[in-house]
Design brief:
CATH superfamily of the largest domain: HAD superfamily/HAD-like
Radius of gyration: 17 Å
Helix content: 40-55%
Mean pLDDT: 94
Structural class: alpha/beta
Number of helices: 10
Bound molecules: magnesium ion
CATH topology of the largest domain: Rossmann fold
Strand content: 5-15%
Distance between the termini: 12 Å
Shape: globular
Number of domains: 2
CATH architecture of the largest domain: 3-Layer(aba) Sandwich
Number of strands: 8
Length: 228
Amino acid sequence: MTLKKLFLFDIDGTLISPGSVSRGLLAKAISAETGKTVELGYNDVAGFTDRSITRNALAKLDHGGMVSEDLLATILDRYIASMESEFLTSDVPFVYGDCITLLEAVEKAGHATCLLTGNLKPISKIKLEKFGLWDRFKFGIFADDAEEKSSMPRLAREKAWDVLAESYRLENMVLVGDTAQDAEAANENGCESVIVCRKPEKRELIESVNPTFLVDDLSDQAVVSAVI
Ligand SMILES: [Mg+2]
């Protein structure tokens, strides 16, 4: 039998495209609580956690001195409430079929899977339930668990023990993501990574941090066979 691995799936840009819906709603929540106009672009959010995105946005507003845990929690609660009503009805988000093909191949080969994402857990649930994907994963590491992605692989390893009663070496864990931060989080922990390049202009940046595999399509047969 081949060695059993743990595959850690990122959500935004990897499993699904949230469009600009979720970052628009997070910006609105920050604006509503601070009274200042906030806009969040792709580069403000991709690869970061909901908590760090919010913290950075508040710092830019010069709200630095006032970033209390209370303010952060109030903004994130407002964001979750608006996602519950608006994300589910939006027809902008979609699933990336190539990632589902990879997920199916991983499951079929008998490997374990989990989520590893910068989204808060309730936000992850809203995003994945929309597409019937939430129940595909037994557990996950979310923004509630860590503020930075780099500490997430080790937490995933601990949780795999708690939830699955299975122990994985870091080198037998494979992070599936779409950003340079995902590749870095894997490298810093001695994990493998499969990074999909969804935006051609990001290729050079992703290449510069040396992911194990960099692909344009996650269903790429050569990569699927190499990693599984
Ligand atoms: Mg992502």
